[in-house]
Amino acid sequence: MRTPRLLVLLVALVGCAGASRGDVTVRRTDYHGWRGAWRLSNGTVDLVFVPQIGRVMRFGFVGGPNVLWENPALRGRALPVSARTKEWANFGGDKLWPAPQARWAWPPDPHLDGAPQKVTPLPGRGIRAETPVSAHKGIRFIREIALDPTGAGVTFRNVMHNAGRKDVDWSVWEVAQIVVPQYAELPLWKRGRNSRGHYVFKGYPPAPGTLQVGPDTVRFRWNPKRSGKIGADSPSGWVRAVFAGSRLTLSAAFLPEEEYPDDGCGQEIWSNAAPLRYMELELLGPIRSLMPGEKQALVTRWNLEPLRRSAR
């Protein structure tokens, strides 16, 4: 029987609409010696999460370079809690910490940083990852990582859960370690707590010549000889890095009326001196009091854009 032309047209239109929505694949893979990692891809970008160490270890255009820094000395390794209580295992990638850092002793809590995480796939979207409960702080982190169906965006719902028996006061802190870019930058905001428009961390002033203060942004370039850190309390809520052919932007809502760590900072950049060549893009939520069983969330967005030579 011959199919009516109108029906053929309708079928074609439905097919095109379905294709335009894109498709996020969620599958297991091996990654740099770690078995059973999770790879999310929509055909434009891909993201890899490694459960053994609880980190996002790759984000980039499919077939292109990774914008996240990885420590080659620790590839494929997973260290026991006893080792991580004495020394920080700096795997690289992206993870969550509680803030302010001044309230906890170095190294980071081994149950929250570097411990194996339980991962549940979210078909067609991404994954849900859960840390163990910290034996010291009584909290755990739960992350839902959802790749956009098309384009180069990712949404992270970063939840802190008070699973202990006492009230706690913490901020959710996302730390993304990135390969050395041409520069990292954050918004200049002179109407906040810092009259010069940005905050310089005590003990970590950037090396001379590495900061460029413009009318709207503060650019920070990596220096091999000195580590440094800056922050901002801008309501625009973003921090970004510009590479040779792309720009990575991380953003989150900033609530000026609430209390934030680090003299009110919601956006921060760390530059790490050699021999480990990386910078960090960091976002923080407000400090909240959580009773047992309560949760707070920091929702962050990543977006990776290709850049033309004239746009840099």
Task: Characterize the structure shown.
The chain is mainly β and 312 residues long. It has a single domain, classed as Distorted Sandwich (Beta-galactosidase, Chain A, domain 5). It contains 3 helices and 21 strands. Strands 6-7-8-9-21-17-16-11-14-13 form a 10-stranded antiparallel β-sheet, with no helix packed on it. It is globular, with a radius of gyration of 21 Å. The N terminus is likely disordered.
User: How does CATH name the architecture?
Assistant: Distorted Sandwich
Helix content: under 10%
Basic shape:
globular
Whole-Å distance between the termini?
59 Å
Structural class: mainly beta
Radius of gyration: 21 Å
What is the count of helical runs? 3
- β-strand percent reads 35-45%
Poorly predicted regions are: 1-21
CATH class: Mainly Beta
Strand order of the largest sheet: 6-7-8-9-21-17-16-11-14-13
Biggest pleated sheet: 10 strands, antiparallel
Number of strands: 21
Whole-number tally of structural domains: 1
Order of helix and strand elements from N to C terminus? HEEEEHEEEEEEEEEEEEEHEEEE
CATH fold group: Beta-galactosidase, Chain A, domain 5
- Overall mean pLDDT: 92
